[in-house]
Amino acid sequence: MKILVVDDNNDDRKVLRYVLEAHGHEVIEAVNGVEGLQAASAYGFDLVLSDVMMPVMDGFQFLRNIRVSSSVPFIFYSAVYDSSNDMQLATSLGVNGYIIKPKSPIELMEEIERIVCAEQKEKSGVIEGDAQYLKRYSQVVVSKLEEKVRALEEALAERKKMEQRLSDMTVELSLAEERERRRIAAELHDNIGQTLLLGKIKLGSLIKAIPPGIDKNEYEEILTLQEQVIRAIRSLTQQLSPPILSGAGLEAALEWLGKRMDDDFGLQVTFVDDRKPKPLSEDIRAIVFQACRELLINVAKHAETESARVTVGREGDMLYLTVEDNGRGFDPVKGAIGVSWDSGFGLFNIRERLKHLGGELMLESAPGQGTRVTLRVGLTVKNG
């Protein structure tokens, strides 16, 4: 047989061509109803195998136009339009058969042969007027649109839930990471660092006790190496979680951070504290500190300024922290070159972590007018 295959899905057309040609049939392809009509007028076909949902002209319109001048066997092969209303409309338009996707090659050929070989029935129920056709056609299309809308709403709702779960997992993972950083920092400071320091003191005492005339160079080299290891451990401890944060509190840690920024980056940081009590959990305190450090590093690297200001205070049961500079600024919508929005403790991740903790981030910036970032998060307030 010469078969016209009409389907807008390229992969589906390829599969149908392969199956039909493997059974000795000749296949002509079209991607929608309009092309199908053009092919039907240019070639003679023994069978039309068509999808229903297609752009430009769908299968129902294609079938109705075909039936104006031809009674060639016509089969719908669809995975979407599969309800009883869909099939009733197709029957009223003169379809010979309706096959639901997907089918195995053997099942597909058996269905096609059964439909083609079946006795041709008189189509007494074919719609005669445009009004009747449009009414039935509109009912089917509206029904499908409603199904699509419901499916889309469900998919969007599920996606939103998944995104929220993913966000929660990301925040929980970052909190667990921060706790591990504090644990490792405490281990380095309290155990390894103290042990090395004690060893250094004892080694220094031994060197002083060495009698004159005995070479002390190798001992002093060991002492120098030990001092280097101690400095490296102190630096690593401060990078992981500075002991001052847990020992003296957030305000003292932020003031210390300002001095470190001057030492490390040449950024002069003015620190302002309203001196009000600001009770925070250990996790939130660490997040606020790490956020402030990341923001100051961004200022040092990208703002093209030598100074910044950190203000921390309390408003009711909320803590606020502001990092501002008078540097080059940027467009908050377009972002800025070098400003981390989606990695590490970038603005995006700071916002997500604060949001998870019931806080918020507010950003004010413009090209040439500096940048101001304010963090707000709830304090650990005990009632009564």
Report the biggest beta sheet as strand number plus sense, adding barrel if it closes.
5 strands, parallel
CATH T-level fold name of the largest domain: Heat Shock Protein 90
CATH superfamily of the largest domain: Histidine kinase-like ATPase, C-terminal domain
Name of the CATH architecture of the largest domain: 2-Layer Sandwich
Look at the helices and sheets and give the structural class.
alpha/beta
What's the β-strand tally?
10
Q: What is the C-level CATH assignment of the largest domain?
A: Alpha Beta
- The residue ranges in which pLDDT falls below 50 over 5 or more consecutive positions are 337-345
> How many domain modules?
3
What fraction of the residues are assigned to beta strands by DSSP? 15-25%
| Overall average residue pLDDT | 84
What share of residues is helical?
55-70%
List the total number of helices: 11
Strand order of the largest sheet: 2-1-3-4-5
Ends: how far apart? 88 Å
Instruction: Sum up the overall morphology in one term.
Output: elongated
> Any idea what the radius of gyration is?
37 Å
Order of helices and strands: EHEHEHEHEHHHHHEHEEHEE
